[in-house]
Amino acid sequence: LINFQIIGTARSAATQSQLLVSATWCRRLSRLLTAQPTTQTDASQSSRDHRRHRYEHRQQPRRPVVAMAVLLGGAAGSAVARADDGDKNSQADEDELLRFCRLGDANKVQQLILRHRMVRRNQLGSRDSDGDPERRLANARHRLGWTALAAAVVNGHEEVARLLLSMGADPNASDTFSGAFSVAARLGANSAEVSSLRSAEFSERLNHGATFVGCTPLHYAALIDSVAMVQLLLEAKADPTIRNADGHRPSVYAPEASQVRRLLQSAELEADRRARRQFPLEQRLRQSLVGQEAAIRCVAAAVRRKENGWGDADHPLVFLFLGSSGVGKTELAKQVSLYLNRDSQQAQQQQQTQSQRQSPLQKQQKSGNNSYGFVRLDMSEYAEKHEAAKLIGAPPGYVGYESGGQLTQALQRCPSAIVLLDEVDKAHPDVLSTLLQLFDEGRLTDGQGRTVSCKDAVFIMTSNLASDQIAEYGQRLRQAEAAGGAGRSGGAGSRELQVEAEVSRDFKDTVVRPILKRHFRRDEFLGRINEIVYFLPFNSAELAQLVNRQLNKWAAVAKDRHGIDLVWSGEAVEALSDGYDYHYGARSIKYEVDRQVVSQLALADEFGLLSSGDRVELIVSDSAKQRKVDLKICRGQPGSGDYSTVIVREKLAADSAGASSAAASE
């Protein structure tokens, strides 16, 4: 809301006239939008009320009006709305640049650049804190969210776009315009005013009610189907893999079978390959998994064949993960899903701002097991014959026919999803028959007769079959590895040990395969599995990594919640590693840290032995049966008079003995 007195503070008469026109236009538009349709019966009454309203309006002093140019930040409005800014000339130059980019006047843009450069140098000289004034001007952004480069691209002004890129405009700068209704609600304006301003100062060809959050200039170049503009942006290092808030890359907006789409898809493939070369899949997986080098190499090789177009396009990729519990089977499946659907994560993060306007039901529908293209099905829930219908949906005439199947619905939403079939050995044989068709033909027909294609999906089955045999075999491999490592030295020896830790072909054929065949009873089911991946128990070095990860997690918790520093030595790590049980994998390490470290921390906190600023050290005490980890609480600075140490186990034992003797004396 502004007053005509504020309009009088404009810099020039031309600006005052533009503001007055905008104010008059807004007043008329507001009356038009708020007017209600009248019938013929009350037409005369409405006419009399209108004449009386006009007479009363003339007698009253002029009220404040909404000036669209001032409220929404047009070329004239920005000068008034930001009149208190420290750099008015720079803001005026940015407003003029946005207008010239919309109109496509390259000469005016070049003159504006030269004038801006001279003015900045004369006014500030070496005191310019903006660094490069030309780059700052080239990256000018409208108050509603779009950049000058986007305005030039969406209107097809190639010469202006080339000039902005030469000045240092960011080709990957994204739009923040979230739709006319959303912007109007945020600014307290009318949605019609926002749409009109978007049409006048950006483009008339777009749907201004839709959201354009995350759209880069390359998205707009694809929308206008301009080959020259796409080539210009790609030469300027524009990223064709960036997705907007809807999760779409620029190639999605190009017409099908067009040269622009082919050009963008080729650039996407090259960008993906370059990213994979710089950060291979094996390196990504090692960040989340401990050990299991053979499994990581096997899965990464199969995924690489699929991504680079060297896989079977008619059949989905099928894995079977074998091993004991807690060795990383499910975690590896999740990491592969995050890698293959890594762009969906970025799109979901961009949609978090929009989720505030959704109902709780919509949020619940978007959450669940299909996050980032990951579908997890616990096959123990399909142990009965009739529960096989839950995968594909009930047949016609049965309860739940219209709801569809859990698997078919998930594949319809994301045909390239990672489907984790956890504990597949617990499923009914009829469920395996359904999976047999799925793995063989790459398609599935639901209860309603709709065919779902899933040739691009990846199916990962986990099982505990032969887990004891694999664990014992792995333990023998680890013992041989440790014995061989004692007599070897150097880097070549470590590589030989890695090869020795792999499962032999003889063990697979004579031990594991008969167990699988006895359970599944079908050679055709096992024959459709691309890779059977074996997960072995951890060695001593990998156990140390697991212990350190758990201790680092609890050290962060102790520092953030209680202000306590938790430190430990290698001896404490070895003592905690003694609690490893190869039948339970990494979970046994987690439980051991909880028992020996976290429980003592909680007990010391309960008895008031801990306070903020203390330093807790993990020390090892040897007992007759096993090594135990104790907590040593250090308070104060070493060497000072107020320095003190307390061992939690001894302190609590002494207090308990003192309490018992006092009770006995009483």
Which characteristics define this entry?
4 domains, four-stranded mixed beta sheet, five-stranded parallel beta sheet, Serine Threonine Protein Phosphatase 5, Tetratricopeptide repeat, alpha/beta
User: What is the architecture of the largest domain at the second tier of CATH?
Assistant: 3-Layer(aba) Sandwich
Number of domains: 4
Write down how many β-strands occur, each being a DSSP E stretch of 2 or more residues: 11
Strand order of the largest sheet: 2-3-6-1-7
**Low-confidence runs:** 1-26, 28-86, 126-130, 353-370, 488-500
- Major β-sheet profile: 5 strands, parallel
Helical stretch tally: 31
Instruction: Report strand %.
Output: 5-15%
Structural class: alpha/beta
CATH superfamily of the largest domain: P-loop containing nucleotide triphosphate hydrolases
Shape: globular
Radius of gyration (Å): 34 Å
Region (Disordered): 36-60, 344-371
Protein name: ANK_REP_REGION domain-containing protein
GO molecular function: ATP binding; ATP hydrolysis activity
ANK repeats: 144-176, 213-245
